[in-house]
Amino acid sequence: MRKSVHSGAASQLRALLREARTAAKLRQQDVADRLGKPQSFVAKYERGERQLDVIEFIEIATVLGSDPVRLLKIVVDSQKALRRRR
To answer: Is the pLDDT of residue 4 over 90?
Structure first.
């Protein structure tokens, strides 16, 4: 089993966070400043070099103006659809 940071679900979640950031017209530095983290923190989770824990994910989604539950539901529903196709 490969690490979850490299899974399709993790990639999809990273893409959703990136899309939310760009839709909010925020730079990585803007997000990092709001989180009290270095810009590299944002770059690393967006590239898949760092895993987020649940609390970090909620904080990031909130800073981006996104509903963390909605974002997770997108990923969960996508995973369910993949399993049904197999």
So the answer is: no
Residues 6+ apart with CB under 8 A from 41: 32, 35, 50
CATH of the domain at 76: 1.10.260.40
**Phi/psi at 50 (nearest 5 deg)?**
-140, 135
Give me the domain span that covers residue 77.
4-85
Kindly provide the b/e burial profile for residues 35-74, where b requires at least 16 CB atoms within 10 angstroms of the residue's own CB. Answer: eeeeeebbeebbeeeeebeeeebebbbebbebebeebbee
pTM greater than 0.85 = yes
pLDDT digits (tens, 9 = 90+) for 29-83: 999 999 999 999 999 999 999 999 999 999 999 999 999 999 999 999 999 998 8
Does residue 35 contact residue 59 with C-beta atoms inside 8 Å?
A: yes
